[in-house]
Every structure is written in C-alpha cells, then in structure tokens.
Amino acid sequence: MKKIKTIFLGILLCTYANAQWVIQQVPTTHRLHDIYFADTSKGWVTGPDGIFHTTDGGNNWEIQYTNFAGALSGLSSTELWTTSMRDTLLHTTNGGVFWDIITINGFTDFDSTWSISTIYFFDTNIGWIQAKGWISGSLYNTRLLKTTDGGVTWEMHTEPWLSTDAYIQFFDSLYGYRTGSSIPFFRTTDGGETWDLVSWYGYMYTLSMQFMTKDIGWMSIDGPVLGTAVIKTKNGGEDWFGNITFECSDLSTYLSFVDTLTGWVVQWTCISPGTEIWHTSDGGTSWDLQFIYLPPFYFGPRQIFFVDSLHGWVVGEHGVILHTSNGGVVPVELISFTAEVLDDKIQLYWTTATETNNQGFEIQRQVGSRQPAVGNWDVIGFFPGFGTTTEPKSYSFVDKDIYSGSYKYRLKQIDFDGTFSHSEVIEVIVDFTPKELTLEQNFPNPFNSSTIIKYSLPEASDIRISVYDILGTEVEVLVNERKEAGNYKINFEAVDLPSGVYLYRIETKNITSSQFVTRKMVIIK
C-alpha cells in the first residue's frame, strides 16, 4: 500500500499504571460532609456522627469527636477548624487529640441544626465563617464574620444576599475571593473590610471554588437548567467560560486542582446513574472520564480533595470514601499511542508495558470541529486485551474511508469488572488535496462487468472521463461536469460492452500542468 504521509502523535510515558480508585469505609453509615488531608497519611472527615481521623491514608479510621461536625478548614497536621451544631466551632492544635468547643454568642436566630455553613482560616489568627439565620418563613439571611485573634472575638458583616453557603479563599491577609449560593462573585483587597462585586451570572448555586493564582480559578456551579457545569476564569473572576457541563447532576459537582493544569471533578449523575470522576491535565481544555462508581445504592459525592497529583479522596453518602494513590489511572501501563496516514486510512498504534485485568480497548473518534465535551465520541472499534501480563504488548487499528479534515482519537481501556478509563487524546490533521492530476489504474483489471476508477484533481475543473474502444471510438462517457479539487472514484458498469481492450481518458480544461491522462482496461466476459 502506498504511504501518503506519517504523523507522529506523541508518547504517553507510564501514565496508566497500578491501582486506580478504591473504596474506603469510615465507621459510619451516614453522610460525610467534608475532608482534609495534611499529607498522604494524616486526614480527617466530618459528618453527623462526628470527626474521624486516619494516619494511614484512609485504610483505617478512628473517631475523635462524637457530635455533629460539618465544614473543615485545615492549616496543618496539628491545627484544624470545623463547624458544629448551631453557633459552635471546633478547634484543635494537636491533630484532634483534643477539640476546643468555641461558641459564638450574640445571635438568637440560628438554624437549630447547622447555622455556620462555611469556615475558612488563612492562618492561625485570621479566619472567616458564614452564618445563616431566618428572616421569615424559609428565607435565609447570612452574616459574614471575621476573626483576627484565632477565634477569640468575631466581627460581623451583614450581608444583603439570601444564601445558605459561601466559598472563601485568600492568597494573603488582604487579597481574597468569596462567592456562594445565590451570591455573586466578590473580591477584596483590604482583608474583607470591603468587597467589590466582580461578576454575577445569576446561577442559583456555587458548589465549589478554587483559585490556583490570583487570576486563574475554577467554580462548579448549578446553571439555569437542570445540570451543573465547571467554569474557569483567567482574569480573577471578571470573565468566566465553560470547561465541562453535566446533565442531571443533583447539585453534587465538586472540584480539586493541584496546579494550574491538573485537576479533577467528581459529580453524581442520574443518567448513568453513578458517581463520575473526570480528570484534566491541560487546565480544563479537555476532560477525560477517569472513573465511574456504580454501587447498589445511591452515592452522592460531597467533596473531593487532592493533597498532590497522585493522592486524592472523595467523600459522600453512607460513610463511603473513594481513594486513589496514583492520580486515578487505570491498571494498564500505556507507553505509546501514535498514528500514521496511509492512502485513505488512518492506522493507530499503541503499546502497553504491563496489563492487569485488561478486557480490551474501545477505540473512540471525533471528526471535524466538535469539541471534546461529554457524549460526542463515536465508537469505531474494539480490540481485546491480554488480561494480565508483565510483557510488552502492541496493538494496531485501521480507521477506513478517511477524508481531508481533523480527527481526534482516544482509547477506552476496560477491565473485566467493568472499570474503565480513557487515554490521552491524540489528533490527526489529514490533507488529501492532490498535488497533480491523476488517473489511477482501474481495479479489478481485467474485469467482467464492473470496475472502480479513481482520479484526483488538484484544483476545481471542468472534466470529462470517457471510454474508447481500440479504434478510438468513444463508447461511454462516465463524467462530464465541473468538480472541486479532491479525490474521487466511480463505478464503471460495462454490461453492454463486449470483451476486448479499451482505453479510458480524463480531460480537463483549466489545469495547465496536465491536460489529459489515458489508461488501458480489459473486459473479459
């Protein structure tokens, strides 16, 4: 087969190896609210039954506090804050061996269950809480409170926005952001004494917020229709644009980034239904569905937390925790994924160093300008894996009937237990525009009554393709019209012609480099 051109599309070095997401269990069957890890070993989770602590990365948990605990704000492996019942905060400076109970006095209209919905400490002294109380009926009034002495005293800021939750983040003692449920996006440059409204898009709920720099940040939000989205800003919240959207996610979409490029989103969808974990390595330009959890019961995620690019946890319903120690990759070590263009085909090649429980690879494709969003990948084939092996294995797949344009490919690696993950996306740009006028030899030749004739035009032209007998008499006109530049093929049915030698010829009127090409064919009946 004639090779048109080869496109090298990159090497994936050891990005899919060993274990992926595993289930851990806290000794409770109730919902877990929040999570914080100081390092890869020491962590805390909160819930209605109290505060649980681990020193081995979540394999084993012990209870430290036996009453309601909500939002967490961790400063180190020894100092943490969390909200509790009504107007109560909990604070530890010894890793949870002892928790101080701090009551914020002066308010009589707190919700009886969970009045302080948000807590954020920038350092040992400076911290913020969001407190909610009743106006009338079921409407919430919020108060933003700040401490500069480690929670001994609090200064109140009355808020005009009806809200239940807020999300607060500071980069230093003066510069910070705040948003929340039905709250616009605010920015402060004076430590919260004043807040400037930066943007407001009318979203009902902000589900999570994280900034990696003063300019670059993300939010997961509930949009105006059923579903949620992850949006990104590059200018400190003045402008936002969509990264990825989900349908029917039940307000359970949370994000965690470890740098400006690497992040994860967890969300529950009623379409699967299940808990999905999505991963990006390019700042949200593209997202890969990394893992889906399909339990026998509802598992609604409530928070996701990564301490580095490898170690992460998701908490949710029934005391269940999902954990990864390698960034959530699948148990297949994919070391290369490349492609080359051959005639009208694209051939994909990929190699694995090791495989564990590998059922096989589903080959997926996007054509044209479609963006890599949810649900627009076409399945074009499946290639069985080798199960479990420590030997390198090579694969190839041919995508036929390719035309000029852009093609994106990825591999969906599937385990025998149904667990799956996607490879990185590679792109092939195909340009089959001919460089000269060509008329290929018909195939088959000789033939009985039907044969294929292919030809190429380097530019738009008025063309005529005719068939002549050996004496030069025209016996058939196959094409007589204007054609755009490109590659073409026609099916010639010679049912009315007797056996013999014939000539077929292409003629053009406006290609100066070659006015005509003639070839010979043989009919045998």
Give a quick account of the main beta sheet: strands, pairing sense, barrel closure. 8 strands, antiparallel
Q: Quickly give the CATH architecture of the largest domain.
A: 7 Propeller
Number of contiguous helices: 0
How would you classify the helix and strand content by structural class? mainly beta
Average the pLDDT over all residues and give the rounded result: 84
Overall structural domain count: 3
Uncertain segments are 1-19, 134-138, 370-374
Report the top-level CATH class of the largest domain: Mainly Beta
Query: Helix proportion of residues, in percent?
Result: under 10%
Q: Per DSSP, what share of the residues sits in E-state strands of 2 or more residues?
A: over 45%
Give the termini distance in whole angstroms.
29 Å
By CATH, the topology of the largest domain is Methylamine Dehydrogenase, Chain H
CATH-level-4 superfamily name of the largest domain: YVTN repeat-like/Quinoprotein amine dehydrogenase
Shape: elongated
Radius of gyration: 32 Å
Number of strands: 43
